[in-house]
Amino acid sequence: MGSSQLIDGGFFARSATDVARDLIGCALVRTHPDKSRSRVLIISTEAFEDGAESGMRSGMKHAPGQLFIMSMRGHKFLNVGTDRAGFASCVMIRGIMAGRELVDGPGKVSTLLGVDTPLDGKMIGAEISFAHSSISVSGFRNTNNSDRSKNSVGKFHLDPVWNDWLKRMPFDQTLIDVTLKASFKDLCREIRKKHGAEKERGFRTIFPTCKWTQAEVVLALDEFRDTDSIAPFEKLLVTG
Prior knowledge:
Layout: H1 16-23, E1 27-31, E2 37-49, E3 67-72, E4 75-81, E5 89-98, E6 101-104, H2 106-113, E7 128-131, E8 141-144, E9 152-158, H3 160-167, H4 178-195, H5 197-206, H6 214-227, H7 234-239
Antiparallel strand pairs: 1-2, 1-7, 2-5, 2-9, 3-4, 4-5, 5-6, 8-9
Helix pairs in contact: 4-5, 4-6
């Protein structure tokens, strides 16, 4: 588990369209100033390349993996540099799934995650990081290039079928990716080790019928895979 799932700067050293497409279904992890963390799923992105120069868009020339916080009409938009330093290319995070909440719009995303100007120019890693998610499966991505804004070369969205799946309750173990199933088995072993066999059996009984959305389960299992932390599942253990 751990850092092997994290996305490094090399991932962003490609065309904006490739990066924007491949970020769909990945996790974005925001480490706040108080060291608390928010983990969300990326469901919508937009790729920007080249175009006319302007002060507002100067951050498009940041290096791959370097954060570009764009200000527009009082809002802050979270972008990440792509391709190569000095070439105008970046990807904007337009929509996320935060637990049970679908957050649609780059300004809303930044507000929820506490993204502001001081992050501009920083590299991914300490305060904003990205990780591969266990639900990146074939047919997951759906593109929509209509309604382009200046410099935009494509918008990418989660397929509506998967969008509905993420919001569905209760959790359905038959639909999850095999990697997540492996994480669930590891989680049960960890619960047995820390809390005993009886608590593990109770957890296995309650978990399939818990009123969590698919997104909440995916994010919690991915966090367990990355950190070995069972904290997101503690409330279920209490009732097990």
